[in-house]
Specification:
With 546 residues, this protein is α/β, with parallel strands linked by helices. It has helices spanning 16-28, 34-41, 45-53, 55-64, 79-94, 101-114, 124-133, 150-164, 190-195, 257-274, 309-312, 319-338, 345-350, 354-366, 370-379, 409-420, 431-437, 451-457, 459-465, 491-507, 511-544, and strands at residues 172-181, 206-214, 223-226, 246-249, 278-282, 299-303. A hairpin with an 8-residue loop joins strand 2 and strand 3 (223-226). The radius of gyration is 26 Å and the shape is globular.
């Protein structure tokens, strides 16, 4: 039976943003049928079926397509030129350089020449289409002062009450990135490695983590950026939305504007559904171009004064430190639990893959306390002593980022560092020293003074190589070259082992842990039953056609 037409009697084609809303609605309402979704979005059932069948492709294209109102993706015949010109535009804006239409035309012509074609004219018609495709509008451009002083910090805190006016604490957000060596044993040489980590083997053992927090002490799901688009350890993961972190890939494991735009666009849609408006504080990293201001209807973006985030950004005032310490504890506990079965702690670390790291990142982030987040917002001058938003300039307040840790947690990490160290006790770093060693890890590409010439000189080479360098973990360690053997061969065997572990934990008087594992066992049993019933249904259908 044909789908019912829309109220106007004409076929309704959903725009790119509406298609993404369909995908997100289905994710949030898994039991919703095609008919009900089609009715909600006033379109045909066949269109909904097509959207859900191509959801990965639609989301990928939406992340790259800056015009959310586009209904059908029409690829430019000059796709490479457009992409190169837009990349140049992003770099220029990250340096706070004003960009005009004629500048875009000039750079497009040069990009085309570097790509081997001197016939491109970069007409006014091309410029109009380019600006529409990437949603580039004329805006007033203002830059921040280069120098930073106590006077700058004081002036910022004086302005904060008026900046925050009209917002509640849960709608005041801060986002920042941090680099993480996800399986490197902390040592004193790690600081120098961090400074030099722009390529090579060490860079392949790192990820960039991005975090959102709000002044009410809440947080969003962590974002993890790795090098590989399809890590081998993800092979069994059929639906990446089930991962405890949002995973993205980038050739250097860095945050870039494309990833950030996708993240903020998704957040903007989420806020729209909840009819919320937030203010988001960002630093002046190159991957945070000034043009983002005004781009998202429900997110007001405000940049901190340049070069003073160590004094003003909540995430830099202890939240990220607390996360890194908790991640270090999880990794080192894992190493100590397995060290007797291996030749060294380093060998254990080499067996850690990206999937395990992502799970630890999620666990570590979940355990950062609400109290720690609020205290860091207070230290930044955003919250007052009674945890309300400041109504007048706040005094600077000192805060130890580790004071909210569980009793003895810092001592435990120091002990674990000693247990896993292969060097003398005097050369073993403390937990605080180990954290400082990774504080300089790059999280996005810094532009040099000669950035424009470097960009055009490498343009043709970058397009020929593309970024399909290595979508596996081969470049990381030889020990994981062979996939790990799965010792459990069936769901029944898995259930039996979970029952044994639950009984053991109960006998050891670890009741809470046994209760949590019992819940996991129940979920496994439910999945096993569903699979069995599904298999029985398929068998009956097959028998019918025999």
């Amino acid at each position: 039976m044909a789908s019912r037409p829309s109220a106007t009697g004409k076929r309704k084609d959903l725009s790119a943003s509406e298609k993404v809303q369909v995908i997100e609605y289905k994710k949030e309402n898994p039991s919703a049928g095609v008919r009900s979704i089609a009715k909600k979005f006033d379109c045909s059932k066949s269109q909904i079926q097509s959207i859900l069948a191509k959801k990965d492709e639609i989301l990928e294209h939406y992340g790259a397509n800056k015009n959310a109102h586009c209904k059908r993706a029409r690829l430019s015949q000059l796709k490479n030129v457009d992409e190169a010109t837009y990349e140049w535009y992003q770099k220029a804006r990250s340096k706070n350089i004003p960009v005009t239409g004629p500048m875009l035309q000039e750079k497009a012509k040069r990009a085309n020449e570097e790509l081997g074609d001197a016939t491109f004219k970069a007409s006014n018609g091309w410029l109009d289409r380019f600006k529409k495709r990437y949603n580039i509008t004329s805006k007033v451009i203002s830059g921040e002062a280069g120098g930073v002083s106590e006077e700058t910090v004081a002036s910022w805190k004086e302005r904060l009450p008026s900046i925050l006016s009209g917002y509640s604490p849960e709608n005041v957000l801060n986002m920042d990135e941090t680099g993480q060596f996800y399986r490197a044993l902390p040592n004193r040489s790690l600081a120098e490695v961090s400074k030099q980590c722009t390529g090579g083997k060490k860079s392949k053992e790192r990820v960039t983590c991005a975090f959102f927090v709000n002044a009410a002490g809440g947080s969003e799901e962590p974002i993890v950026i790795g090098k590989s688009k399809s890590p081998r350890c993800f092979k069994a993961i059929k639906d990446r939305s089930q991962l405890p972190c949002s995973y993205f890939s980038q050739a250097k494991s860095w945050m870039d504007f494309n990833i950030l735009d996708e993240v903020l666009s998704k957040l903007n849609r989420k806020l729209a559904r909840k009819q919320r408006n937030v203010i988001l504080f960002l630093d002046n990293a190159p991957c945070h171009p000034p043009d983002m201001k005004g781009k998202y209807d429900h997110i007001k973006i405000v940049f901190f004064p340049a070069n003073c985030t160590s004094r003003l950004q909540p995430l830099d005032l202890g939240i990220i430190q607390a996360f890194k310490l908790k991640y270090m504890k999880l990794m080192l506990t894992h190493v100590v639990s397995k060290i007797d079965d291996c030749n060294s702690a380093t060998e254990v670390c080499k067996s850690v893959d990206l999937l395990q790291a992502i799970r630890w990142i999620a666990q570590a982030w979940e355990s950062v306390s609400e109290s720690t987040i609020k205290k860091c917002f207070a230290k930044a001058g955003i919250l007052s002593a009674d945890e309300s938003l400041v109504a007048f300039p706040a005094d600077h307040r000192e805060f130890d980022p580790f004071e909210d840790l569980d009793s003895g947690e810092l001592v435990q990490v120091n002990s674990l560092l000693s247990d896993t160290s292969s060097v003398s006790e005097s050369d073993t770093p403390s937990a605080v020293e180990a954290l400082e060693a990774t504080s300089t890890l790059p999280t996005c590409k810094e532009l040099s003074a000669n950035w424009e010439e470097e960009f055009f000189s490498t343009l043709s080479a970058s397009t020929s190589q593309n970024s399909e360098e290595d979508d596996s973990d081969d470049d990381i360690v030889k020990i994981t070259a062979q996939p790990k053997e799965v010792k459990i061969k069936s769901m029944k065997e898995a259930m039996s082992m979970l029952e044994d572990v639950t009984e053991y934990l109960t006998d050891e008087n670890l009741t809470d842990m046994a209760n949590n594992l019992s819940r996991v066992l129940s979920k496994v049993q439910s999945t096993w039953l569903a699979q069995r019933l599904n298999a029985a249904t398929q068998t009956k259908v097959t028998d019918f056609f025999k």
